[in-house]
Structures are given as structure tokens and as C-alpha cells.
């Protein structure tokens, strides 16, 4: 799914008005009507107090249209105008005039804290937040922030229109108290990037996209910087297998890592690569890992370093199609030296994780030796070591994009919504759950990415697909283990089910047969 920027949404509105030969006021009517339809379908006339707070711009106009339809359908509606400026949008004013024609009580005007201090909002009421929209570009006035805090304190169900008021679409916030905490957000035409970032996702609640009628051709043809990755996006990436294929068709993965006490990381990555579909997997480990690997995963071949406890001299007589390196590797002086020597002579595609990333962070001159399209998979602290600290999520993304372009690498920012960064393009994953916050899960992902690259997927496609499968497998395992008991091995066990799920059709509702007479 494309995630349109603020500028693209504005351009889409403009083109829609021109191509459909309608006014911007009519387009706003369409949007507000869709909002009404959404809430009417769910409430079916229930007489719950609905407090609609409208700003004085276009998002406020959307709220006025919805409020008008709710009133004419007999709902218990109280409409408020949050009068935060002297300026009014033209479309807001037109719909403000219309709502006055359907209600005996005009909207309540709020211009300071005293105006809303006596407003009573019950915990069972509904608040509709249509104060600011995507055009919000300056800090909310203190009294408006106090109003938002009143929303939160009321415990009422809060429905945000397009985006919770107080959030910017393209920069970090500075004051949590000046933002609406929504239980549900109805986003126009596409979700917003801020819905998926660590610092801002908490304001969104659940979200849903509302089609407000922006021109279809424009939506189809417009390229976006950000894409949301779900089943429909990864299905076209899937490579089916030919009947007469054999293991040689699906490549040879080398998982290079491990140190004394951390051989398990190599076991997880190796088994994950096999379960993702690699034809052959070899593990390169210190001598101390030989017996455990041969016993734990008989399908994996093992090469050992001359050193008992660490990787000290990388030498192998095979031709892997991809090398996953860094899991459990350690950062001893001998390991760092052999890692450096390895990078300088290697030309095989790489997936680098864990201590491989930590070594690169400490020796950034080695970045020049990475093959084009190398995949780096840092968690937040590893990322900070690589690119330096950041002041907010947007600065972080800009720094990662610059890093990706400078070194021609793919960077996977691991997290609740893992983001794959390929130069200026972002791919946000939608699978996974908090049960994945446990040791070894990243090692599994390194194996899955390596196992897909080796089958002929491009590094970018492999990363996007692997992150989806990895998260989906965890979601499937969650049903049996719950958040607390989910471990990395469970994700490997259900990778096959994650593949199968790609081709499952949604369950259709059962139709009850009429009783026979």
C-alpha cells in the first residue's frame, strides 16, 4: 500500500477537483459523508453523546459535515468550534453555515480554557477530533493543549479524523501533552508514516483508511517514498518452484559467526536459512561449536576455525551464494582483524548482523569494502553506533537514507514496524508482535534473509519478504505460546505455515440455512 505524503494528498485533492469538475466544498462533503457512514454503520442510531470538536480549517470542515449528517439522523451530537486562529478556510465557512440550518443549537465556540472548563464528557461518550489536520505546522496554543488533555482525562472513546490533532506528518513532536491520544484514527486515502514510528504510533490507536474519492488515476500513477508491506505486496515477490528442481537450484548459504557461549546464534540462523528454502547451508564456527551444530541440525554442514573459542582466520573451500555474517561473532581483537581481511577480499553478497555491525561501527573505513546491495540488519542501539545519535524518528530516517545512499547498502531498521531502507525508499512491515522481543529472533531473521537471497531474490526483495514472513511466523506461533513464552525457535518452526498462509483465502462468513418446514 502506498503512503502518500502531505504534498501528494494536497495535489490529489487539487487534481480531483479539476478532473471530476467538482468544487473543493463538494469534495469535503464526500469526505465528511464517508466519515458519517463509518460511524453510522457501527452505532446504528445509539443515543451515546458524540462530542465533535472542529478546527477552523479543512479538517474542521470535514468534522462539520459528519456532525451535520449525524444530527439529521437523530444522533445526540454536541458540536464545538476550536477557535485557535483568526483565519478560516473557505470550505469550513460554507459547511459551518450549513450545519446551522439543521440544528437549533449552534456549535459551541471555544476560544480559551474558560470556554471548555465546564464541558462534561463522560467515559462512555464519544469524542471526534477534527481540530487539526495534515496541514498542522506549528505548536498548539497552551489552551488547545489543555483541551486535548481534557479529552484524555475523560476516558471517552476518541476518534481522530485523518490524523490525531497535534501530530505533524513530517517532523517530530516536542510536547506529548499537546497531541490527541486517539483510540481510533480514520485516515484519508492512505495511512501516514507517523502511524508506524516509535515516538508517534502511541497516539494513533487502531487505524483504518477511508476512501474520500481522490482521483483513481492519480493514486495509481503517483510514486511514493513509503510503502506499507502486507500480504498483497509480498505475494508478487514469491518465486514458485519447478517440479524438476533440485537443491543446487536453491543456492548455498554460509552462516559465519559464533564464539564461545554464542554458538546458538549460528544454530538459529542456519536452521532459519534452511527453513526459508535454501538448498544448502554451511556454518563456519570456532571449534567449540562443531559438535553442538552437528547434533542440533544434521541438515547443516559445518566448517571450523582453527581457534577453539573465536573466529580468528576465515578460510573456506566452497563457493557460497550468500554469506550471513556476524551472529554471535564477538568482537575480540583476532576476530576484528580476520573480519577486516575477509571484507577486503570478499565479493559474495552479504547479510550482516549483530557483532558484524558493531565491528563496522568501530571501523567505519571497512564500509567501503561492502558489496553493493549488502543487507545490514541493526536493532536501535546497533543502528545508533553505525549512524550516530538522532533527535527524533524523522532525523533517524534521514540519516539512514543518507547512509544507504552513501554506501549503496540496504538497511533494515528492526522494531515493532521494521523499516527496510533502500536509499530514498522506505518499506514498512505490518507483521509481528511484542512476543518477538526475545533473544535470538534477530539471528533467525538473518537466516531467513540469507535463505531468500540464495534462492534468487534480489537483496531488497529478500529483505522485504523475509521481514514479512518472519513476523507472520511469529504471529502464527503467538496463538500457541502467547507473548511471554514465544521464543526464536518457535518462529523457525512456523515459517512453513507463514508461506502457506500467503495463499489462504479469507474465510467467508457462514450463511445459516433456513429451518426446514
UniProtKB/TrEMBL annotation:
Binding site for K(+): 59, 129, 165
Organism field: Winogradskyella rapida
The organism's taxonomic lineage, starting at the top: Bacteria, Pseudomonadati, Bacteroidota, Flavobacteriia, Flavobacteriales
Cofactor annotation remark: Binds 1 potassium ion per subunit.
Family: In the C-terminal section; belongs to the NnrD/CARKD family.
Subunit architecture: Homotetramer.
Name of this protein: Bifunctional NAD(P)H-hydrate repair enzyme
Highest taxon of source: Bacteria
NCBIfam families: yjeF_cterm, yjeF_nterm
Amino acid at each position: 500500500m502506498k503512503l502518500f505524503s502531505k504534498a501528494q494528498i494536497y495535489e490529489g485533492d487539487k487534481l480531483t477537483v479539476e478532473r471530476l469538475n467538482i468544487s473543493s466544498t463538494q469534495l469535503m462533503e464526500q469526505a465528511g459523508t464517508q466519515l458519517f457512514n463509518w460511524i453510522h454503520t457501527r452505532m446504528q442510531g445509539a443515543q451515546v453523546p458524540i462530542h465533535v470538536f472542529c478546527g477552523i480549517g479543512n479538517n474542521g470542515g470535514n468534522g462539520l459535515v459528519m456532525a451535520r449528517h449525524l444530527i439529521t439522523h437523530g444522533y445526540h451530537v454536541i458540536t464545538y468550534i476550536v477557535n485557535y486562529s483568526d483565519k478560516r478556510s473557505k470550505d469550513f465557512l460554507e459547511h459551518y453555515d450549513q450545519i446551522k440550518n439543521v440544528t437549533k443549537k449552534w456549535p459551541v465556540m471555544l476560544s480559551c480554557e474558560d470556554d471548555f472548563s465546564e464541558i462534561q464528557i463522560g467515559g462512555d461518550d464519544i469524542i471526534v477530533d477534527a481540530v487539526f489536520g495534515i496541514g498542522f505546522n506549528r505548536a498548539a496554543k497552551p489552551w488547545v493543549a489543555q483541551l486535548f488533555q481534557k479529552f484524555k482525562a475523560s476516558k471517552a472513546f476518541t476518534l481522530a479524523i485523518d490524523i490525531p490533532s497535534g501530530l505533524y506528518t513530517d517532523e517530530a513532536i516536542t510536547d506529548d501533552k499537546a497531541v490527541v491520544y486517539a483510540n481510533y484514527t480514520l485516515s484519508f486515502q492512505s495511512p501516514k508514516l507517523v502511524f508506524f514510528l516509535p515516538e508517534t504510533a502511541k497516539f494513533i490507536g487502531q487505524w483504518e483508511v477511508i476512501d474520500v474519492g481522490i482521483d483513481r488515476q492519480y493514486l495509481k500513477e503517483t510514486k511514493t517514498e513509503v510503502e506499507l508491506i502486507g500480504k498483497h505486496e509480498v505475494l508478487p515477490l514469491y518465486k514458485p518452484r519447478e517440479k524438476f528442481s533440485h537443491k543446487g537450484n536453491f543456492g548455498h548459504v554460509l552462516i559465519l559467526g559464533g564464539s564461545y557461549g554464542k554458538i546458538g546464534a549460528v544454530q538459529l540462523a542456519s536452521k532459519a536459512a534452511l527453513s526459508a528454502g535454501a538448498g544448502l547451508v554451511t556454518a563456519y564456527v570456532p571449534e567449540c561449536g562443531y559438535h553442538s551444530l552437528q547434533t542440533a541440525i544434521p541438515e547443516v554442514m559445518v566448517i571450523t576455525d582453527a581457534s577453539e573459542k573465536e573466529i580468528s582466520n576465515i578460510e573456506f573451500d566452497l563457493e557460497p551464494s550468500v554469506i550471513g555474517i556476524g551472529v554471535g561473532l564477538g568482537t575480540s581483537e583476532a576476530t576484528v582483524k580476520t573480519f577486516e581481511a575477509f571484507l577486503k577480499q570478499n565479493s559474495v553478497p552479504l547479510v550482516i548482523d549483530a557483532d558484524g555491525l558493531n565491528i563496522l561501527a568501530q571501523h567505519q573505513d571497512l564500509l567501503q569494502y561492502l558489496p553493493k546491495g549488502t543487507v545490514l540488519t541493526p536493532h536501535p542501539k546497533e543502528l545508533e553506533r553505525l549512524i550516530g545519535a538522532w533527535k527524533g524518528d524523522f532525523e533517524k530516517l534521514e540519516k539512514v537514507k543518507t547512509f544507504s545512499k552513501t554506501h549503496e547498502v540496504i538497511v533494515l531498521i528492526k522494531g515493532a514496524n521494521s523499516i527496510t531502507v533502500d536509499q530514498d525508499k522506505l518499506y514498512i512491515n505490518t507483521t509481528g508482535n511484542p512476543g518477538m522481543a526475545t533473544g535470538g529472533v534477530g539471528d533467525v531473521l538473518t537466516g531467513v534473509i540469507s535463505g531468500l537471497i540464495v534462492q534468487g531474490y534480489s537483496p531488497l526483495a529478500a529483505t522485504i519478504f523475509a521481514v514479512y514472513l518472519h513476523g507472520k511466523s511469529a504471529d502464527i506461533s503467538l496463538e500457541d505460546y502467547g507473548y511471554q513464552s514465544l521464543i526464536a525457535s518457535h518462529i523457525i518452526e512456523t515459517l512453513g505455515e507463514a508461506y502457506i498462509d500467503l495463499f489462504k483465502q479469507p474465510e467467508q462468513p457462514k450463511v445459516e440455512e433456513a429451518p426446514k418446514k
